[in-house]
Design goal:
single chain, 485 residues, mainly alpha
Length: 485
Amino acid sequence: MKNSVKKNYIYNLIYQILVIILPLITAPYISRVLGAENIGIYSYTTSISAYFILFGSLGISLYAQREIAYHQDNKKKNSKTFLEIVILRAITMLISITIFCVTFASRGEYSFFYKILIIELIAQCFDISWFFSGLEEFKKTVLRNLIVKCISVIAIFLLVKTPEDLDLYFWIYVLSAFIGNISLWFYLPKYLVKVKLTDLNIMRHLKPTLALFIPEIAIQVYTILDKTMIGAIWEDKSEVGFYQQSERIIKLLLTIITSLGTVLLPRVASCFAQNKKQEVFEYIRKSFNYVYFLAFPMIFGIIAVANEFVPLFFGPGYDRVVILMSIISPIILFIGMSNVIGKQYLLPTRRQKQYTISVVIGAVVNFIMNSCLIWKYGALGASIGTVIAEFSVTFVQIIFVRKEFNIKETLKLSLNYLISSVIMFIICKLVGIIPVGNLLAIILQVGAGVIVYLLVLLVLKDKFTYEMVKQIKDKVLRLKYSKNV
């Protein structure tokens, strides 16, 4: 029996949060020890290596996850697909690694750090998380990340002591990626059967992966290019550091929303393959509700507590992060919506052409906005460009699905959450006036905000909220009953 969507969502949510939240545990420490300049160097160089990972990986991970999901119960077919994709990815990554070594790693101001990042590229050859995602086996990837990431956090606190330890920070980063990817291979024997090498047809995957490669490039343009452009245009790498820190907080919150998309992609693909269209649309409707329920309070909550949160979390010298976080925050809603339409609907239903068009438009918009704004405004310009780009992606996707979905009704679902979030924001700002320390102020604001938000939704008789409350009550009652028995 397949794992339930709820269980897989919880596993994947833990997995995604671990990837970001454990670095966040170290962020207050690292921001003080290394400083904004070194964080900027780290962000800039890793953004360069990310391009080579992108080109070496093609669109393989997303394609492979979908292909494994289509044949979840066919071990022989999945074994053949697995071997073909692993070999294809190894070949393309080795080509990318060679080019990286000849260019960035062999010369330049940061060549020493690029040499260390070669390990990160090699680690990508062994990344098979897509296989377990396609099988909806998220628990294994969670356990892998939990152990590896915890070890890396401990290593950071033990080894990184001064600004001169930036190279150690790089080593911890690349080795955790390498060890984490290798560890998943030990689970494989249970899921694979022997396949004759003569039966393999590696090249059959090249064309479909290239089709998904275009949107992958486009997505990377407006997730990595901004840091690259800031680093290339601004001599002071602190500007990249400010942008990196603000983006990191936003992406942590965004992970809670987009994790559902990773879980539902294989489930929707499976339903689509079985022609269960009604189930597909039911999943999508619930996803929109879920996005609205979380995105609006997150956006207004960030803006409400930013002034207290930034100096407490990052320390002195990061005041610029306050405005950057506030400006970037709307992407939580836009990316959440595009995740539902694009990754949960268009891709699983084989409409990747429309998905590609939407993200390419977003990339073009982002590049144009960055080119116009970064020169004058630095990280602030990149933040504005990112928001406009993400909005354009969502807008284009809405146009593509307007005939399948009642767009007016879909957007109307957000009204209760918008009203509740505005009221929550006002209460949070009023609570913030209380003359207490930053830590206590944040605790009071968040506590009051959550209570007010949920109470207003209950007053508005929001159906989604009532269903969640009912489910929680039912679980509590079942637990009490089981204990009594």
